[in-house]
Amino acid sequence: MKLDLEIKPETIHVAIVMDGNGRWANERALARLKGHAKGADRVRHIVRASLNMNVTHLTLFAFSTENWKRSESEVIGLMSLFRKFMKSESKKLLINGVKVRFIGDRNRLDKSLIELMNNLEDLTNNNDTLHLTIALNYGGRDEIIRATKKISEKIKSDELELDDITIELFSNNLDTFDLPDPDLVIRTSGEKRTSNFLPWQCAYSEYVFEESNWPDFNKEIYEEILKEFKTRERRYGAVLRQ
Ligand code: IPE
Ligand code: IPE
Ligand code: MG
Questions:
Q1: Ligand of minimum distance to the alpha carbon of 140
Q2: In total, how many domains does the chain have?
Q3: Taking ligand 3, which is a single-atom ion, which protein residues have CB atoms under 5 Å away?
Q4: Does 235 fall in a domain?
């Protein structure tokens, strides 16, 4: 029997809008930042659960291009939580085979934060078990505009022609150029909207809107969602059964 070495191992890409930290804190008469801190703890838990369930790609929405509209103290608090997370988790991520990548526009971020992001990417670059992508200062429309500018520059300099623009070329100019499209998007906290999260990449993704707030999300709920997702029939516009 001939083994087909061309066949890629199956990937499963889960993307999560980690929403509801503020409401979780409000319900307990705590400051919003306490909710975010608990949310960071859930990230650790869900990364571990993803490794255990053989999820190959996990993309987490941590901060949107619209989240700058929040109070200065909340934004500063979130940024310092991101720093803390990267410092405390880097070794564990490295030894567990997690490859970390960031998507979003880094220009508006603090130098010290960008340095930590670059270091974590470099440190985990050779890992392959779980591809963890963190969307930080990410907005789907912003990403599409940045990709359009990149392509336009290449046309201006005659590196590309107009007819070279295809879906594939466009995808390759997005921040997610090296990622498969998400199979499943989970949004916690009961909100049923996408809030500018991966609009191009999620054209054919399945969605689950989960009632619990992100600080209450756990591996049992996650497991149930994945189980149900696996029963879905994905059609991509075709007719599978006549
Ligand atoms: C998600 O929780 C975390 C971020 C957007 C950074 P929220 O802070 O949006 O929580 P709610 O929606 O106010 O409850
Ligand atoms: C989306 O949640 C962004 C993140 C989870 C980082 P938001 O709480 O910012 O979204 P809206 O404002 O409710 O749409
Ligand atoms: Mg929210």
A1: 2
A2: 1
A3: 19
A4: no
CB 89 within 8 A of CB 60: no
Angstrom distance (rounded) from CA 182 to CA 202:
6
Q: What is the DSSP string of 151-183?
A: HHHHHHTTSS-GGG--HHHHHHTSTTTTSPPPS
CATH code of the domain containing 113: 3.40.1180.10
- State which amino acid sits at residue 221: I
220 lies in which domain range?
Answer: 13-139+182-229
Q: Provide the residue-wise pLDDT of the chain in tens; the chain has 242 residues.
A: 444 444 556 999 999 999 999 999 999 999 999 999 999 999 999 999 999 999 999 999 999 999 999 999 999 999 999 999 999 999 999 999 999 999 999 999 999 999 999 999 999 999 999 999 999 999 999 999 999 999 999 999 999 999 999 999 999 999 999 999 999 999 999 999 999 999 999 999 999 999 999 999 999 999 999 999 999 999 999 998 76
Is the Cβ–Cβ distance between 174 and 201 less than 8 Å?
A: yes
Find out whether the beta carbon of 77 lies less than 6 Å from any atom of ligand 1: no
Nearest to residue 22, comparing CAs of 7, 37, 11, 9?
37
Asked whether residue 224 is assigned to any structural domain, the reply reads: yes
Residues ≥6 apart with Cβ < 8 Å to 50: 14, 58, 130, 132, 222
Residue 100, domain member (yes or no):
yes
Atom 8, ligand 2: which residue's CA is nearest? 19
Within 13 Å, how many C-alpha atoms sit on residue 60's CB side?
Answer: 20
C-alpha 95 to ligand 2 mean position (Å): 31
